[in-house]
Amino acid sequence: MATAMTDTTALIRLMSWLSPVFPTGGFAYSAGLEQAVADGAVTNAASLHGWIATTLVHGAPWNDAVLLAEAHRASDNLDDIADLAELGRALCVSAERRRETVDQGAAFLDAAAHWFGPGALPPRETPLPVAIGAAAGLAGIDAEAALAAFLNTLVTNQLQCAIRLSVTGQTGAAQILAALEPSVADMARRAAAATTDDLGGSAFGADIASMTHETLQPRLFLS
Questions:
Q1: Which UniProt keywords are listed (predicted)?
Q2: Residue 217 and residue 29: Cα distance in Å, rounded?
């Protein structure tokens, strides 16, 4: 059963679970951004800001956020979590997208098991947002806080990719991170009250980039 915790403990745990050193391998994935750079769709800080802002609100991250919120509510029901995991895998628009979310979900669950008893967490083939939502729910972490941390991590991962792809430097990345803070907070608030009826997206350019990246050579990232 879910148990409440203090705000400080919840913050520390979210920082641990979503930090760059937590072994989920997020540094290896660009979620199609590498392809967007190769195609010339993202060339500088301004276009990078636009790409991340659009995909965050209208692309896969919104669906991930809804799945996380639903998993948080269903955290003590492994049958419901299994259904959400199946839905999460079905929503993946490309093989790389599926690999990204399932492999990171498995890695997250392996590491997060240190905080839980045997059998509490879902199986390893659970997509990352469902895995995080279930773990946060079981730990008694506030859903909106978990969503905000998750979405902010998605943004920071994209910015780290952009730095490695020489689209922007650290100062430019920090500026974009600051500018996107209100969008992250608003999206977390909306997703916390969302259900699977609210799933959907229209970031077709990001979806196509994710598909096309499967044949990109040479490349730095797995997606």
A1: Chaperone, Cytoplasm, Nickel insertion
A2: 15
**In this prediction, what percent of the chain has a pLDDT beyond 90?**
87
Output Rg (C-alpha) for the chain, integer angstroms: 16
Residue spans of the domains in the chain: they are: 30-211
CA-based torsion, 164, 169, 171, 177: positive or negative: negative
- 160 touches 35 (CB < 8 A): no
Q: What is the pLDDT of residues 140-176, one digit of tens each?
A: 999 999 999 999 999 999 999 999 999 999 999 999 9
Scan for tokens 């290896």, then name that residue.
28
CA angle centred on 171, ends 165 and 176, rounded to 5°: 80
User: How many angstroms separate the CA atoms of 58 and 47, rounded?
Assistant: 16
Six token digits for residue 105: 């979900």
Neighbours of 167 (CB within 10 A): 21
CB neighbour burial string for 67-91, b if at least 16 within 10 angstroms, e if fewer: bbbbbbbbbeebeebbebbebbbeb
Host H or E run for residue 110: helix 95-112
Given a cut of 90, whether residue 1 has pLDDT beyond it is: no
CATH class of domain segment(s) 30-211: mainly alpha
pTM summary value? 0.94
- Residue-wise pLDDT for 22-57, tens only, equals 888 888 999 999 999 999 999 999 999 999 999 999
The first and second tokens of residue 198, run together, are 């609210």
